[in-house]
């Protein structure tokens, strides 16, 4: 007896937390307008690709922070074009479609929108001008290594449009480092993760060394876009479209920097790890359940009766049409059968004339028509079996005209006799079908009795024999599948034989002298078309070639074998206590989702509910409309992407960037550019004593831990490395500007309107927190 299979129960896992997919939230309040504006106080304006931060430097915090976007909207009722900026663009869904940013990458390309944002900033700061003049010095941020054209355009707006008295520029990440340092001469390695790019800037004695600054063309915006592309590839048929706000929120909420990426990526899809790493995000979906009014049992019964009556009426109409066609064909058969008997007495010329009179080309055409007519009559008789009247028929009195000769009947009675002959033939066919069905039922009942006696007598032997038979059928099924697959390989024996059959067919058409061809030529009178040279098909064996070419025979055998397997498995499931659903052939062909990397990657550490319901045999229509299925189809599983996207900062080749990552760049700076000077007073030692991380991506969990681990791997043993994050990685750039505004260095770095007019836009005053002149 087969060994008993012990089924282990799966541990019940707690339900996973489902997070809602967050979109942009329209602001409820208007941006405030500052009421304590003072003339002459420097205005600090942090111009970022993602947000603007503006405020007077006599305050420790910026007065206004808003996204750096603008939009134009045409009000058709008022016949006015409105220009909106900042948070106001999100208030109306119609305006959102026209949202634009003045930036293309880190550089400004739409200066009209930049002027709109500057107007918006100064207006909400409560700036009061003097004859169109701005009476406050300006401190602004700009990208590292800003092109001359960018500064030139900015000078033109500030000095010519706003009439600003004096302006100075700096780098946001250096301002953030300045805000988080206790000394103006501090040294350190600044890692600035911006919206469009990431920079590694060495700072020595309070001054950024821009000649050794390195850039990675990957920032927060690229990270969000990359996450969106990964999810689009992962869920190509996701019902909802993910926009930039969705991916931005997903990245900020769930992504983190891996402490050891290679180790974590190797095991993140292990069930125990995936249970913690997998995040389910639910997109909005409306599920209408129970909205339709439930019909009463009387209404359902009335509708069912109406459908039955309509079906019966349609059946009667179809049967009447078939009967009329059958009578017509039977009349033709009787006429041409009589003609065939008479044609034996006619000579060849008379026969040909008679055939042409009746519309036939020759005797072959007549034989072809009679063959088709015979098949059509046979098919009509077979189709009509079982569809006759259900009332009892007395064969002795039902068809009184059948035994009467035609010469004793009138023309109408002869027609009626033909109808009765058809009804009699249908009656006989039904009776034969009933008898055959009765015999089959008796044989089936006898087989069931024998099987039941066998099971009662020796269930173990019955199960063993059935399992052996099942194994043989499965082996046969697999061999057929293997044979079908072999046809795809043109070098296989099966494919070669198939090509040989095709070649033989072509050879027959071009004058083959094979035995089969000669036989078909000898049977030319049996051809089914009008070409006397084409005798293919006259012999029934000829058609087997097409079956060999199309694999139809194998596919039919495959279907029959599969049906036998299903029937046998049904018996074993019913009577064999050791045979379970997972022992079936279908279950063995399906994958185990716990061992499927793709399943865990897409569906997480739980079985896909669709597969589970299909395994239970639930109706596919019911599965498609099941509320839980609809809800699951609107879910995203974020797992591998949580660490893959931030890892690009350390391994840019993941996103196709031919650049070095943060750790590799820093290693090259410390060990080569600064000569591995890790002794006391050395530049490399001063840099690693304060590795400073700022910018939006500094909010990612484990960022400083990863930087510490990577730096430790290439630094000398015992090197005193210190990695820290800005107190506010996004807002400290403005606070650094506010702090620097009161310094002597800031006062000496302003470029006045007179300097601009005298020296031109290429004139620059260098300072430790800004760009330098390359001239």
Salient structural properties:
alpha/beta; 30 helices; disordered N terminus; 775 residues; six-stranded mixed β-sheet; Nucleotidyltransferase, domain 5
Largest beta sheet, briefly? 6 strands, mixed
Radius of gyration: 44 Å
Strand content: 5-15%
Can you tell me the overall shape?
Answer: elongated
Strand arrangement across the biggest beta sheet: 4-3-2-9-10-19
CATH topology assignment of the domain at 43-180 and 731-759: Nucleotidyltransferase, domain 5
Instruction: Tell me the number of helical segments per DSSP (H or I, 4 or more residues long).
Output: 30
- Mean pLDDT value: 83
Spans of at least 5 consecutive residues whose pLDDT stays below 50 are 1-9, 385-390, 509-532
Structural class given helices, strands, pairing?
Answer: alpha/beta
Distance between the termini: 93 Å
Bin the helical content. 40-55%
CATH top-level class of the domain at 43-180 and 731-759: Alpha Beta
Write out the CATH superfamily name of the domain at 43-180 and 731-759.
Answer: ATPase, nucleotide binding domain
Structure description:
It is built from 30 helices and 19 strands. The chain is an alpha/beta fold and 775 residues long. The protein has a six-stranded mixed β-sheet, with helices on both faces. Strands 11, 12, 13, 14, 17 and 18 form a six-stranded mixed β-sheet that branches. Strands 1-15-16 form a three-stranded mixed β-sheet. It is elongated. The termini are far apart. The model is unreliable at 1-9, 385-390 and 509-532 (pLDDT under 50).
